[in-house]
Amino acid sequence: MKKLLSFLKDYKKESILAPLFKMLEAFFELFVPLVMKQIIDVGIATGDRAYIVGRCLLMVALGVIGLVCSLTAQFFAAKAAVGCSTKLRHALFEHIQGLTYSEIDTLGTSTMITRMTSDINQVQSGINMVLRLFMRSPFIVFGAMIMAFTIDVKAALIFVVAIPLLSVVVFGIMMWTMPLYKKVQKGLDKVLGKTRENLTGVRVIRAFAQEPKEILEFEESNEQLTRMQMKVGRIAALTNPFTYVIVNLATAGIIWVGALHVDNGLITQGAVIALVNYMSQILVELVKLANLIVTITKALACASRIEKVFDIEPGMVYGDAASYENKKKEQKNPEYAVEFRGVGLTYRGAGAESLSELNLKVKPGETVGIIGGTGSGKSSVINLIPRYYDATEGEVLVDGINVRDYPMETLRDKVGMVMQKAVLFQGTIRSNLCWGKKDATDDELYEALEIAQARDFVEAKEGKLDARIAQGGKNLSGGQKQRLTIARALVKKPEILVLDDSASALDYATDAKLRKALREMNYKLTVFIVSQRAASIMHADQIVVLDDGKVAGIGRHEELLAGCSVYREIYYSQFKKEDGKEAQA
Questions:
Q1: How far apart are CA 19 and CA 216, in angstroms?
Q2: What is the DSSP secondary structure assignment for residue 116, as one 8-state letter?
């Protein structure tokens, strides 16, 4: 909690003024029953209408002053709560951005979204309510009890009994419900995850007519969440009836004792009304306090979940700039652009290695093809180059320097990564292409589009580079999205370009033109092509064939066709033999 409370440090003034003005409001409120007592005992008893009017005006003045204090307190409380939650949300987002793929995979996307939205909103409500009521309610409760003692000691003893009983009820229910609210938030994570899965996969669900199955699974998750919320709601609902029973019994006791004292001439009728009013104030404030406790309980449960994300330290430590520059001086003309030395990779929580014993040397300007069956480890290999994951065995070198010794920005600037899934963002074609280089000129953008075989369809669009792109690129075809993501990577002119099955939606002719354009670029570009198509990688300088995370063969097309059974099987599944020779189908 200390870390979360540190976000309030810029709102110290608001955090002090909000409860202070609330206490001022409470202070004026405590005088109202005394004024009422004077109206009854003096004004009504003597028939002095002028006195009654004067005291009524005093009550109105106390109410107006209390209202001003309340509004002022609300302003400061809201400013502190919203400001703190905004800073917290920014810090959480920044922290998540600093986590590695391994930590993000472990946490899950849905739970991170819940913690950045619902959980932080609950914390915001908790801060707001605490600043407004946490000091006001106890002040009214104990203040009313003290004021009752000034009126009649024996009658006030009822307050001494009632208040501890009410505290036991309120705090007992709080301790009971706190762990249950944590379970509710976990259930919300599950429902959000299911919703996100259905929305992102809606086309596949419809294609296989799986709507009834998904609806049933969603209803089950939602029903489970509903049951948990109803359970915790029933327990929390016990607060009001229990507090009302105790307070009303105490009120009845006050009236009874007060009536006896009035009959004996010890106190006046106005004093009894004042005592009842004080008990009513206590009732109202304890009900507020009970609701405040529920809000605080939710906020604490959510704050604990947020803090757990902050407690996760990024698993990767990057090299510092000075150390990198020294190593760079030692590697003036590195022989290899990328080198894998005995590399193995085991994903966190996985039972077996996803990649093992990979040894590969790639010279600057070479093109490397990576092929293999589904799940053979192709993406695992290329994810090690920009250090999205760390090799669990061996080492990966870029320009002769271990990727662990690179500052993150330096390493990522060297590598142009085109992911397997083409991801575009809402905006324009220009704004998407400029991710790699913010100040790229139109000529640079068109050059990248030309190489990526995307210039024709971009120029055909209304607005050209300023044509609008929907979120996720939903107004583009699969091939257009892939070509734009390739162009985006090329804009920053990387030394290493990685195409992770990113031409799968292109036809063979466009794919061939793309590879030809990459070979003819005006600088030495080292290219890694991951593909399921043998045609896409058969002209590469080296082809790495993977089978279940292990290297089945490395070499050129002809060498592998003659000596690697795995490559031969893949190749002949896409091409057929004719008269002992291979010919394209």
A1: 48
A2: I
Fill in the amino acid letter for 477. Answer: S
Locate tokens 């669009």: which residue?
Answer: 461
Q: Which two tokens stand for residue 581?
A: 């020779």
Same domain, 155 and 47: yes
Q: Which one-letter amino acid corresponds to residue 123?
A: V
Residue with tokens 């000075």: 322
> In whole angstroms, how far apart are CA 299 and each of 1, 119, 310, 410?
11, 8, 16, 41
What is the spatial distance between Cα 239 and Cα 227, in angstroms, rounded to a whole number? 19
Q: What is the CATH number of the domain that holds 351?
A: 3.40.50.300
| Percent of residues, the chain, with pLDDT higher than 70 | 98
DSSP per-residue letters across 53-90: HHHHHHHHHHHHHHHHHHHHHHHHHHHHHHHHHHHHHH
Distances in Å between the Cα of 344 and the Cα atoms of 362, 395, 484 are: 18, 9, 33
Task: Check residue 7 and report its DSSP letter.
Answer: G
Which helix (H) or strand (E) segment holds residue 2: the answer is helix 2-5
The pTM assigned to this predicted structure is 0.69
φ, ψ at 528 (rounded to 5°) = -110, 120
> Does one domain contain both 264 and 358?
no
> How do residues 129-154 score in pLDDT, each as one tens digit?
888 888 888 888 888 888 888 888 88
Domain that includes residue 363, residue range: 331-420+495-579
Does 577 have pLDDT greater than 70? no
Phi and psi dihedrals of 572, rounded to 5? -75, -10
Question: What distance separates the 2 farthest-apart alpha carbons in the chain?
Answer: 126
Token pair for residue 345?
């990779």
State how beta strands 526-530 and 496-500 pair: parallel
**How far is residue 289's CA from residue 141's CA, in Å, rounded to a whole number?**
10
| Residues 211 and 348 both lie in one domain | no
Of 293, 305, 2, nearest in space to 168 by CA: 293
Residues 347-398 pLDDT 10s: 877 777 788 888 989 988 888 999 988 878 888 888 899 888 888 888 999 8
- 217's tokens: 């699974």
Three-state SS annotation for 166-183: HHHHHHHHHHHHHHHHHH
